């Protein structure tokens, strides 16, 4: 598999649809470790407990218009 990192948006998109990290890696053609690294980055950035929580935060922020 190519050595590339999935974008946060890609990971959040597939996670919101219920895909596991392994499934996301397969769909994007990357190593599982690349998705796990992206999940860790997303969790840090959003201060989320886990990926499901990160998806919830992300979806809430998308729905909230900027002031």
Gyration radius (Cα, Å) is: 12 Å
Number of domains: 1
* Main pleated-sheet profile: none
Indicate the low-confidence ranges by residue numbers.
none
Shape: globular
The counted number of beta strands is 0
Q: What string gives the helices and strands in order?
A: HHHH
CATH class: Mainly Alpha
How far is the N terminus from the C terminus? 43 Å
Assign the CATH superfamily: Winged helix-like DNA-binding domain superfamily/Winged helix DNA-binding domain
In short:
With 67 residues, this protein is an all-alpha fold.
What does this structure look like?
- It is built from four helices and no strands.
- α1 crosses α4 and α3 packs across α4.
Keywords:
single chain, globular, Arc Repressor Mutant, subunit A, 0% strand, mainly alpha, 67 residues
Which secondary structure elements does this structure contain, and how are they paired or packed?
Layout: H1 8-16, H2 21-28, H3 32-46, H4 51-63
Helix pairs in contact: 1-4, 2-3, 3-4
